[in-house]
Every structure is written in structure tokens, then in C-alpha cells.
């Protein structure tokens, strides 16, 4: 392709009648004398009859095949490592395969993805420098996970899905291999250098106790006694019914059974079960009534715009015992992610600063 492209200006020049430069080695004294004689003969010859101009036939050797990667447009160079337009297009296609709902145009995604592709190339170069490899078995595991993610029942079906999106299994394997190598080098350069200590967890717990407690779940049931009439007498009758039912439950009637028989709420068929709740899901006054209870305890009749309620707290996570152990692990994960991101950003800045990057897009 490139040789043919270079041949076109040469042919155009010949057709336009451009003279051959005198420095061409094949032209010596005899060639110069021949040109002078031809000019004299042309001047003495009669004018040619008008008609179509007949041009000499020009032949050329067929162009040698050109590597498509060489012919591809280079859009960036990272430490003398070329990134081509095809690679960027593949990155966009790979993203669309993972995010089927992506609505941005290819042009928009290409603008967004070029910095990512450059960053990815820098990380791959680090993996190469560290001699990090991805085993075939690791790549196969990633491919199998991707097949499950997209519901492919066989490798043939998965490959057909890829072809429908302009991708190939070879491209996916290459991308998976690159991702594995990058994750390995990040673990070596970043994750292994991040630690979270118990004193740091204690400090975070102390500084964020109120927020952490607010995020703990609880489980409750309730019974609703709605007034038969919106009058003082109607509301009082509802309160009395709720109080009498509470007394029966205290004496041994099962709360869930009482809810199924007497509650006028939509949860009656489920024994008044409100399910597992998080702070803020119910109105603040109702939530306060529930969270002041001990596990297994029942509230006094509580009035809301709907009627009178009886609440029973089934369970509540606290920052004690198992709940505290779970919370400390969550804090450890939070602090690790924060430190990891800081360390990752520093490492990426470091490899960018020592890199030579030229963008040609």
C-alpha cells in the first residue's frame, strides 16, 4: 500500500511532463546529446494533428505486502512504543463488550480512552521490566468468568457473541493477559506496600462511631390498629384495642400470630415482618421507637397518622461482639482502599514523569 501511494506522485509528475533531473546517474554525455537532437527534430517537425493525446505506458513492479501494523496510523508514542488507532478502537470495542449499555459515541469514547490506553501501556511496560507473566491457566479462568458473566453456554457461543460485536477470542485473550500482568505488577509495586494498623482502626472507629452505628441494620415486626372513624372516639377505640392486644402478647400470644389475625397493615400476612432495615428507611419518630427497644422487647401503643402501632425488635446489630468484629473488618477495608489509591496515584505519577509521551491524535 505504501509503495503504491509513493508511486502515484511519481506517475503524476511523469504525466505532467516534468524533466528528469540532470544529476540522475544514468544520464551521461550521450543522453544529453540525445535530448538536444530530439529538441531540434521536434522544432523542425510539422504540428501534430489534433486528437487524443497518447501517453507512454508506464509499468511498475507490484508492491511488496505491507504489515498492517506498520501501515496503521500511530496516534501516540510511549517510550518509543507506538500506540495505533486500531489499538484505541479495540479498547473502545472491548469497553462496549463489557458495558453493553454504553451510550457515548465511538468518537467520545476514543477521546476518553486515549489517556487510559497510554496509562495502560506504561503499566504494561513496567510489567515487562519486572518480567511479570500471565499463565495460560490464569487467562483461561478469566475467559471462563467472562463467559459466565454474559451467559454463554459454550466457547463457540461466546466466540459468536464476540464476532457480533466486532471482537475476536484472540483479542479478548490478549486483553485478559495484559490485565492479569498489570494487576500483578500493581500488587508488587503498590498493594504489598500498603498496611493498616490496629491503632488506625481504633482511631477511625472513634472518629466515626455515630456514622457507623447509623449504618447498622435492624429487624422488626409491627401491628397496626387503624381507627374505624376519624374522630376522637374512633382513635380512642383503636388505642384500647392495641393496648388489649399488647397485654395478650405479654401473656403469651405469639406476636407474629397476633399480627396475622388482627393487624390492619399490608404486612399482616407476613406476621407483621418489616424485614431488615437500615437507619433512615422509616420515619424518625417510628425508628426512634424501635431502636430504643432491647432485642425481643415490644413497644407501648404508638400513634401515627395511620393508627396505633405495636413494634417488636427482633434483632439489632451493634458495635459490640460480632458486630464490632465485622465493623472493624469493614474499617480495615476502607482504610486499605484509601491508602492503596494514594499509593497507586503516586506510582502512576512516578512512571509518567520518567516516561516520554508524544500524542499525535
Task: Give me the secondary-structure topology.
Blueprint: H1 2-15, H2 29-44, H3 68-71, E1 74-78, E2 81-84, H4 85-98, H5 106-129, H6 136-149, H7 155-164, H8 169-189, H9 198-207, H10 209-214, E3 218-225, H11 232-250, H12 255-262, E4 273-277, H13 284-291, E5 302-304, E6 307-316, H14 321-353, E7 357-359
Antiparallel strand pairs: 1-2, 1-7, 3-4, 3-6, 5-6
Helix pairs in contact: 4-5, 5-8, 6-8, 9-14
Offer a quick outline of the entry.
With 361 residues, the protein is an alpha+beta fold. The protein contains 14 helices and seven strands.
How is this structure best described in words?
The structure is a single chain. This protein has 361 residues and is of the alpha+beta class. Among the domains are: 2-37, no CATH class; 77-189, Orthogonal Bundle (Triger factor/SurA peptide-binding fold); 217-316, Chitinase A, domain 3, CATH 3.10.50.40. It has 14 helices and 7 strands. It has helices at residues 2-15, 29-44, 68-71, 85-98, 106-129, 136-149, 155-164, 169-189, 198-207, 209-214, 232-250, 255-262, 284-291, 321-353; strands spanning 74-78, 81-84, 218-225, 273-277, 302-304, 307-316, 357-359. The strands form 2 sheets. Strands 4-3-6-5 form a 4-stranded antiparallel β-sheet. A 3-stranded antiparallel β-sheet has the order 2-1-7. Helix 6 crosses helix 8 (169-189). The longest helix has 33 residues, at 321-353. The protein starts with a helix and ends with a strand. The model is unreliable at 1-71 (pLDDT under 50).
Amino acid at each position: 500500500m505504501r509503495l503504491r501511494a509513493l508511486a502515484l506522485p511519481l506517475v503524476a509528475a511523469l504525466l505532467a511532463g516534468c524533466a528528469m533531473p540532470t544529476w540522475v546517474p544514468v544520464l551521461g554525455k550521450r543522453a544529453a546529446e540525445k535530448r538536444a537532437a530530439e529538441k531540434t527534430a521536434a522544432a523542425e517537425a510539422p504540428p501534430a494533428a489534433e486528437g487524443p493525446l497518447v501517453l507512454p505506458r508506464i509499468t511498475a513492479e507490484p508492491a511488496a505486502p505491507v504489515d498492517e501494523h506498520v501501515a496503521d496510523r500511530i496516534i501516540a508514542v510511549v517510550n518509543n512504543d507506538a500506540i495505533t488507532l486500531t489499538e484505541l478502537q479495540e479498547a473502545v470495542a472491548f469497553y462496549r463488550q463489557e458495558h453493553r449499555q454504553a451510550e457515548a459515541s465511538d468518537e467520545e469514547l476514543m477521546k476518553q480512552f486515549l489517556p487510559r490506553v497510554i496509562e495502560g501501556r506504561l503499566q504494561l511496560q513496567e510489567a515487562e521490566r519486572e518480567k511479570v507473566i500471565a499463565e495460560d491457566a490464569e487467562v483461561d479462568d478469566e475467559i471462563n468468568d467472562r463467559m459466565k458473566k454474559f451467559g454463554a453456554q459454550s466457547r463457540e457461543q461466546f466466540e459468536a457473541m464476540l464476532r457480533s460485536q466486532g471482537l475476536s477470542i484472540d483479542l479478548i485473550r490478549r486483553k485478559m493477559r495484559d490485565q492479569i500482568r498489570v494487576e500483578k505488577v500493581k500488587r508488587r509495586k503498590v498493594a504489598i506496600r500498603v498496611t493498616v494498623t490496629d491503632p488506625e482502626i481504633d482511631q477511625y472507629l472513634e472518629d466515626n462511631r455515630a456514622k457507623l452505628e447509623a449504618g447498622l441494620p435492624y429487624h422488626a415486626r409491627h401491628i397496626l390498629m387503624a381507627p374505624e372513624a376519624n374522630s376522637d372516639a374512633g382513635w380512642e377505640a383503636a388505642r384500647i384495642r392495641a393496648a388489649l392486644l399488647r397485654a395478650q402478647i405479654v401473656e403469651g400470644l405469639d406476636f407474629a400470630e397476633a399480627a396475622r389475625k388482627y393487624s390492619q397493615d399490608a404486612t399482616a400476612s407476613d406476621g407483621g415482618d418489616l424485614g431488615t432495615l437500615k437507619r433512615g428507611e422509616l420515619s424518625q419518630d417510628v425508628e426512634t421507637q424501635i431502636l430504643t427497644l432491647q432485642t425481643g422487647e415490644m413497644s407501648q401503643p404508638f400513634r401515627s397518622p395511620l393508627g396505633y402501632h405495636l413494634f417488636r425488635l427482633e434483632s439489632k446489630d451493634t458495635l459490640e461482639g460480632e458486630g464490632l468484629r465485622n465493623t472493624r473488618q469493614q474499617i480495615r477495608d476502607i482504610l486499605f482502599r484509601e491508602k492503596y489509591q494514594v499509593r497507586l496515584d503516586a506510582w502512576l505519577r512516578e512512571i509518567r514523569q520518567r516516561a516520554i509521551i508524544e500524542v499525535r491524535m
